[in-house]
Specification:
10 strands, 10% helix, mainly beta
């Protein structure tokens, strides 16, 4: 709240004194000439900022051979991690469809032991053949590793330097905790005479 203070004014007592007579002297009137002054309005000059030059850098060429891949001649292969496999599946309709397959209402790689390999070729391949082993402990009490079966997986054509992911599916229950290992990939140049794609599992007990 703003408070205002009123200050009282006291009148001063004065004696009456004779007032002298002032003679008014007439001064000649001077005619005022209106001088028009032109006011120059300065226009504000807006300085334009110079445009920055944009340098377009071409995208770098994909690294070849791919990082983490093992090479044998002009053929390259890599075992992807689970994280890499999920990332690849998010960009591959084929791989997503394979992982979405169900057996008895359960996703195929939650039912059976699975593996995967990423392959590529310098010159391209007419089709791919991937061979692998299914290995695990002999029993709950015997930790000795044993081969329980072999898997032969066939996949389709790839062009030069095209990386493709091949899913390897066994027919052994996942609960047995067997793993797909000893993976080898073959790049075929001649046309296939077998069904592509396909998977053949051969149990070691047969």
């Amino acid at each position: 709240m703003l408070a205002l203070t009123m200050v009282p004014t006291h009148a001063a007592t004065t004696k009456a004194t004779p007032t002298p007579t002032a003679k008014a002297s007439a001064k000649p009137s001077v005619s005022a000439k209106a001088t028009a002054k032109a006011t120059a309005t300065k226009k504000a000059v807006v300085k334009k900022k110079p445009l920055k030059k944009v340098t377009i850098t071409p995208s770098p060429k994909p690294k070849w051979p791919p990082s983490g891949f093992k090479a044998n001649g002009g053929v390259y292969a890599k075992i992807p991690t689970a994280k890499e496999l999920v990332g690849t599946a998010s960009n591959s309709k084929i791989l997503t469809a394979q992982l979405a397959q169900k057996v008895d209402g359960v996703a195929i790689c939650e039912k059976y032991s699975c593996g995967a390999v990423q392959v590529a070729s310098l010159d391209g391949c007419a089709w791919w053949e991937v061979n692998s082993k299914l290995v695990g402990e002999t029993s709950a009490t015997d930790k000795t590793l044993k081969t329980f079966g072999s898997i032969r997986t066939l996949a389709g054509k790839t062009t030069s330097k095209q990386i493709t992911t091949i899913l390897i599916i066994s027919q052994e229950p996942l609960k047995l905790r067997h793993v797909v290992t000893n993976i080898s990939a073959i790049c075929h140049k001649n046309p296939a005479t077998e069904k592509i794609p396909s998977t053949t599992f051969k149990s070691a007990t047969n």
